TrEMBL record:
UniProt cross-references to PANTHER family, sorted A to Z: SPHINGOSINE KINASE, SPHINGOSINE KINASE RELATED PROTEIN
MF terms in GO: ATP binding; kinase activity
Pfam families, A to Z: DAGK_cat, YegS_C
A cellular-component GO term for this protein: membrane
Xref: SUPFAM superfamilies: NAD kinase/diacylglycerol kinase-like
Species name: Penstemon smallii
Superkingdom of source: Eukaryota
Organism phylogeny: Eukaryota, Viridiplantae, Streptophyta, Embryophyta, Tracheophyta
Protein name: DAGKc domain-containing protein
Membrane-spanning segments: none
Length: 356
């Protein structure tokens, strides 16, 4: 296996054992297919894609501390390849190369931005990337060691914020099928998301929040305050599952959930789950600044769907545009700025396997 500008970690001699399965988040436990191969059949090639700058540099420091445990837990049964990203989008290229070379799993080590890039590396030219070897026994799985600022995706899976737990999950290697969403980037190229895509106020807040990551989770509060200053609720048109266009007046934010949380722990699409083959779309209309103060706790604990001017629906695809085009409505997916409306968001047909 090639090294992806990486440091290969020599497997350690200490033996490790496949233990009892850990409990899964209930939704996944119900849906999962057990795809674990025999641990003794061959050594698994695991590629760890580490963003050393994640969480304002904390990811890199935590990763160094984690390595001895990783080596002792997995080194005897897996080939471990560590690849540090050198900048934005590098994780995409590392992932594509690893899949083509037949990695058993590519594991994102960092926050939602790193996971987002690794997920995008699973695709190329609108199709899943495949192994060079057509006889390969099984597809490359996605893994995650959440070590970011928000790490919102891991919350949907009910994971504790403990990287050692994540390593135990990787050691067990139990795979589940999950879905991802697809939209288009600024130049029309396909762009994949695993967590939440959203637009207008929340997307603008995310755009500003990314400038304040050095303040940890407080960045989301600062970003929201900054976004509010220039915010106006906007009339929009929406087409769900290729039906008719519908007009939604005074839209504050529209969130397309493949998973439940965004913005550092806000349970915005509480019924979404990546194992289901549709999105939960939550639309906030005519919200004033004081509505957020009065209802913020409900947004955080996911009880906002009964609040006035909040609606929720299921969709496999949703197209959103302005009534009067201004080209200034922010769009983001998985917390990454993606340009401005109009956009279409769809569940990607087919699934990927994730180590859960
Ligand atoms: N070596 C690097 N130097 C600077 N930025 C990088 C590097 N590698 C990756 N990045 C960028 O850092 C961004 C943020 O990383 P990441 O998501 O891991 O951490 P975070 O933003 O702190 O966490 P979260 O997204 O969960 O809030 C990624 O979108 C990625 O493009």
């Amino acid at each position: 296996m090639i090294l992806y500008q990486a440091v290969a970690i020599v497997p350690m001699a200490k033996p490790s054992f496949i233990g009892a399965e850990q409990p899964l988040a209930p939704d996944l436990a119900a849906d999962r297919t057990i795809l674990r191969g025999s641990a003794t059949s061959r050594r698994r090639d695991l590629v760890f894609v580490v963003n050393p700058r994640g969480a304002n540099g904390r990811t890199g420091k935590e990763w160094k501390k984690l390595l001895p445990f990783l080596r002792s837990r997995l080194g005897s049964e897996c080939n471990i390849c560590e690849s540090l990203t050198s900048g934005p989008c590098h994780a995409i290229d590392i992932t594509r190369e690893a899949i083509r070379e037949g990695a058993d799993a590519v594991i994102a080590v960092g926050g939602d931005g790193t996971l987002h890039e690794v997920v995008n590396g699973f695709f190329w030219g609108g199709k899943p990337v495949s192994n060079h070897d057509p006889k390969a026994a099984r597809a490359t799985a996605l893994g995650l060691i959440p070590l970011g600022t928000g790490s919102d995706f891991a919350r949907t899976l009910g994971w504790k914020n403990d990287p050692r737990d994540a390593i135990e999950r990787i050691a067990l290697g139990v795979r589940s099928h999950i879905h991802v969403g697809v939209t288009s980037g600024e130049n029309g190229e396909p762009h994949y998301f695993i967590n939440v895509a959203d637009l207008h106020l929340s997307a603008k807040a995310g755009y500003y929040a990314s400038r304040y990551k050095k303040f940890g989770n407080l960045c989301y509060v600062i970003g929201a305050l900054q976004a509010f200053f220039s915010h106006h609720n906007q009339d929009m048109r929406i087409k769900v599952d290729d039906g008719d266009w519908e007009v939604y007046s005074k839209v504050t934010a529209l969130c397309i959930g493949n998973a439940k949380y965004f913005g550092g722990g806000m349970k915005i699409t509480p019924n979404a789950h990546p194992s289901s083959n549709n999105f939960e779309v939550v639309i906030l209309q005519d919200f004033k600044w004081y509505d957020f103060i009065l209802k913020l706790h409900k947004l955080y604990n996911g009880t906002h769907l009964s609040v006035k001017n909040v609606s929720s629906r299921r969709a496999c695809s949703i197209e959103v545009g302005e009534i009067v085009s201004s080209g200034s409505i922010f769009v983001q997916s998985d917390g990454e700025h993606l340009g401005f409306l109009p956009r279409k968001f769809s569940i990607f047909p087919g699934s990927i396997e994730m180590i859960c």
